[in-house]
Write a structure and sequence with these properties.
The chain is α+β, with helices and mostly antiparallel strands. It folds into 2 domains: 18-245, Arfaptin homology (AH) domain/BAR domain (Substrate Binding Domain Of Dnak, Chain:A, Domain 2), CATH 1.20.1270; 292-444, Pleckstrin-homology domain (PH domain)/Phosphotyrosine-binding domain (PTB) (PH-domain like), CATH 2.30.29. It is 68% helix and 11% strand. The chain has helices at residues 3-25, 40-97, 103-170, 180-240, 242-264, 269-276, 371-389, 396-413, 420-444, and strands at residues 296-307, 310-321, 324-328, 333-337, 342-345, 354-358, 363-367. It has a 7-stranded antiparallel beta sheet. Strand 5 and strand 6 (354-358) form a beta hairpin. The longest helix has 68 residues, at 103-170. The chain is rod-shaped and about 145 Å long.
């Protein structure tokens, strides 16, 4: 060997030593300088990296699968609770439209708002779970791990080819020089290809070992922050409603105690039935003790109508409030203008307890259960017609008061006395309806 070759060899050794020292200082797991020696220790390091990356790949695959299932389940869960929220809010709205707002409807509406706000936060969490967690993991798996598989396959193929060509060269007989130059060229080319693939593969393994430490952790940190934001928002929402919850809990205890007292109080239904039994007979003679001020009355009457070219009698509900008289035919309310009507008993009718309402447009033939009801309906309707003709329109407050008095008189007839709580409740209902009407009039004005 010449002095030039010796100097080149020494420079090469110093160069490898310097690069190896640099790789060690940078914390590289696989030294690229060892790819040329390809020692068993070098192969062990490659094997350790492959096992680590294979474990990571299987873990990421399982995490993505479970995360996709979590997104699907979370969407179904959120959809169901959003539907519950809509039903609660719709219930409160319908009760408000019917002036039936109470502790139940308002509380359910409040719970509906809470659920709606929580589910909006959950939708954001579901979106973040897909955008900042699942998709980056898929990208890392497809870009980095797929390249790892390809380079691994090329490295193993180059290794196998090199060993095969080297074995062919070494198996040549000492005295057989035929084709030795070609075999030497094949060995040189295979060795270069193997070292190239080894360098590429080991470099990618080193990069993967470094990238997995921050890219995978970054995804989980993003997921944790997103989860923290959702649960923190839910905590704040439920914390804000804690005073209301305590108030409702106290009210529920009070309502439950009242209901238990009512259940403990034994109601003698037979006593009420016994007092009402004489009035069940339609032939029983009764005398009204009510003083009619504002005409208010309601109940079922038999109404004659024509059906399939024959006359039939149907049980229809009628309602009179002041000068407003109407009946319900099963689908809608129909109004009757009393200003041009006349009411009289039908003495020549084939059925008993009949009277008629005669108007220029139509005549209504009606029948009551007993004679007492017939005369009371006639008297009340005549009173209403008189008020309508003299434009003595009753106010809503007068109608409500008359309805209450009418109900109280009917209860007293059967021996049922209203309690103080019922009287108080009736007064509160009248006051609430009065305020509602006043608000509506103010809004119209």
């Amino acid at each position: 060997m010449t002095s030039v070759d010796n100097n080149a060899s020494q420079e090469s050794i110093l160069s490898w030593t310097s690069e190896e020292q640099h790789e060690k200082e940078s914390g590289t797991k696989i030294l690229l300088s060892q790819c040329f020696e390809d020692s068993p220790m070098h192969r062990d390091k490659i094997k350790d990296c492959e096992e680590s990356i294979d474990l990571l790949q299987n873990t990421i695959r399982n995490i993505i699968k479970s995360a996709n299932q979590a997104v699907s389940y979370a969407k179904d869960f959120s959809k169901c609770f959003s539907k519950i929220s809509e039903e609660l809010l719709n219930y409160e709205k319908q009760c408000a439209n019917k002036d039936e707002s109470d502790i139940l409807s308002t509380s359910l509406g409040h719970f509906g708002e809470i659920l709606s706000e929580v589910e909006r936060g959950r939708q954001i969490l579901i979106t973040n779970l897909n955008d900042i967690f699942i998709e980056p993991l898929k990208k890392f798996s497809s870009e980095e791990l797929d390249i790892y598989k390809q380079l691994r396959s090329e490295f193993n193929s180059a290794d196998t080819t090199y060993l095969s060509v080297l074995d062919k060269f070494l198996s040549k007989k000492l005295k057989d020089d035929s084709g030795i130059q070609e075999c030497a060229k094949d060995v040189s080319a295979a060795r270069e290809e193997f070292h190239t693939k080894s360098l590429q593969y080991c470099n990618h393994l080193n990069n993967l070992q470094a990238k997995k430490k921050f890219e995978i952790l970054e995804n989980f940190i993003s997921l944790t922050y997103s989860s923290y934001a959702f649960f923190h928002q839910g905590y704040e929402v439920y914390t804000d409603c804690e005073p209301t919850m305590r108030e409702l809990t106290g009210k529920l205890i009070e309502l439950r105690d009242q209901q238990e007292k009512i259940e403990k109080k034994k109601i003698n239904y037979e006593q009420y039935i016994e007092k009402a039994r004489p009035f069940y007979n339609p032939l029983t003679v009764r005398h009204s003790s009510k003083q009619i001020t504002v005409p208010v009355k309601s109940g079922y009457l038999m109404k004659q109508s024509q059906q399939m070219k024959r006359l039939v009698w149907k049980r229809i509900f009628f309602e009179l409030k002041g000068d407003q008289f109407r009946y319900f035919n099963g689908t809608k309310w129909n109004n009757i203008d009393l200003r041009l009507c006349m009411v009289r008993e039908m003495k020549q009718a084939d059925r008993r307890n009949c009277f008629e309402i005669v108007s220029p447009i139509k005549t209504f033939h009606l029948q009551t259960d007993n004679e007492y009801e017939m005369f009371e309906w006639i008297s009340t309707l005549q009173n209403a017609i008189g008020r309508a003709l003299h434009s003595e329109r009753a106010t809503p407050e007068e109608i409500e008061a008359a309805t209450l008095a009418n109900s109280a008189a009917t209860s007293a007839m059967f021996g049922i006395k209203p309690t103080e709580k019922e009287k108080k409740r009736h007064r509160q209902e009248l006051l609430a309806k009065k305020k509602t009407r006043r608000r509506r009039n103010d809004s119209k004005n």
